[in-house]
Design goal:
Blueprint (H helix, E strand, L loop, with lengths): L11 E4 L2 E4 L4 H19 L6 H10 L1 H6 L9 H19 L9 H8 L4 H15 L1
Antiparallel strand pairs: 1-2
Helix pairs in contact: 1-4, 4-5
Length: about 130
């Protein structure tokens, strides 16, 4: 109650583009946004652009959207796996590698010169903690 007005009690809301919820993690929204942006890059820039440029666009847009607000995340093993899976999905398409080619994820990461997204988020969190 504020100034004799009853305020609505909610279990889920967004503040500064970050979800604050009892049930759903902010990471779910970020992964969904990452996958949408990565999918748009794959669809709209099929063969017209070289791989390095596509990777740069992904780093500037999709990865930045994913990391926004991630300073306070406590990543569980399952969430780390989901982050890596989203990254590998994009990199497989970028390199033209299908699952039938039987390339493991580590090999795909090395071929694409991409840093592991989980390691990158943890480094981002360490930098943020040093800043605070």
């Amino acid at each position: 109650m504020i100034n004799d007005n009853i305020t609505e009690q909610v279990t889920d809301f967004k503040y500064l583009w970050c979800r604050i919820s009892e049930y759903k993690s902010d990471l779910e929204d970020k992964l969904q946004t990452y996958n949408k942006i990565s999918g748009a890059i794959r669809r709209h820039f099929r063969k017209q652009m070289n791989k390095e440029t596509k990777l740069r666009i992904r780093n500037i847009t999709a990865k930045a959207a994913l990391k926004f607000g991630g300073e306070a995340w406590v990543l569980k093993k399952r969430e780390e796996q989901r982050l890596e899976a989203a990254q590998i999905k994009f990199l497989r398409h970028l390199l033209g590698i299908t699952k039938l080619d039987k390339e493991n994820n580590q090999c795909i990461g090395e071929k694409s010169w991409a840093q592991n997204i989980v390691k990158e988020i943890k480094q981002y969190q360490k930098m943020w903690l040093q800043h605070v």
